[in-house]
Amino acid sequence: MRRPPAKGATGGSSGDGRATNGAGRMGVRRPSRGVVSVGRWKGGGGGRAGVGRRGERSCGRALLEVIFLVQGQGPYSGVSDGRILKWNGEKLGWTTYAYGPGYDSKTCTLSKFSPETENARESRCGRPLGLRFNQNSGDLYVADAYKGLMRVAPGGGEATVLVNQVDGFPLCFTNGVDVDQVTGQVYFTDSSMNYQKSQHEMVTRTGDSTGRLMSYNPRTSDVTVLQAGMTYPNGVALSADRSHLVVASTGPCKLLRHWIEGVNAGTSEPFADLPGYPDNVRPDTKGGYWVALHREKNELPLVVIVIVSLSGSVTMGR
């Protein structure tokens, strides 16, 4: 098995569960997905990314997002049977770290499911799509497509559902999550109020614009809708200066910037046009962002990587 990525790397997820494994690398099998690097630039966004190709490989059972704990433990990854796995090195491999309410190994992991019954399994067992640790408390926050926003206590075990409805409307397709490591505030997305993950293609086909970007305060348990009426909000990342959030908008193939601090707080604007359908987004170490792409626009799935510079010029990956 391939070695896990370097300490501190984070990755993105794909629709079929394969995952990227770090900043600047892909860890998935062909046919695959891609990664885009969106660099820093001045002004109100409007950057454009190009594409390049990278090699790939996968491991485990339908890996979703891959993350590390700050102490170098892991990586950790959600998988398609509802569990969150932890990598324990070559000798022990992957072990179960956490799972959502309603999970049992006989039904969720050991049973054989046909494509016709797979959706029923996901609905019961869960499908963790987004993972993010609070590096101070050790709590793991999970965006589960069916169960909502969950928290796993340090050490793992059964997750606690924190949010499964907001303002009287259920979370239908919980998708991305990020944590402010200074305040502990949690940011997450609900991709649609009309369609679940099992109907994710309908979100794109219909142009559904009922998605929501929200915040959760772990001290008060208050949930705030930061923006409603969004088109397929997916991954979310807090900027390095904590002034704004970058949200992957899958259907339109764009990144959006939502300001949470400063004179523009509460407003959103286009941030970047992408060459494919984005899934997760994570900041890099230079003020830019890595974006996992499900596939390119109007093309068969490919692994892609680009770098957009501070001036907006595009460099093709190799």
From TrEMBL:
InterPro entries: 6-blade_b-propeller_TolB-like, Strictosidine_synth_cons-reg. GO terms for cellular component: vacuole. Residues 41-52 have a biased composition (Gly residues). Keywords: Glycoprotein, Vacuole. Residues 1-54 are annotated as: Disordered. Its main location: other. Residues 175-262 form the Strictosidine synthase conserved region domain. The keyword Signal does not apply. It is found in: Vacuole. It comes from the Eukaryota. It holds the Pfam family Str_synth. The keyword Aminoacyl-tRNA synthetase does not apply. Belongs to the strictosidine synthase family. This is Strictosidine synthase conserved region domain-containing protein.
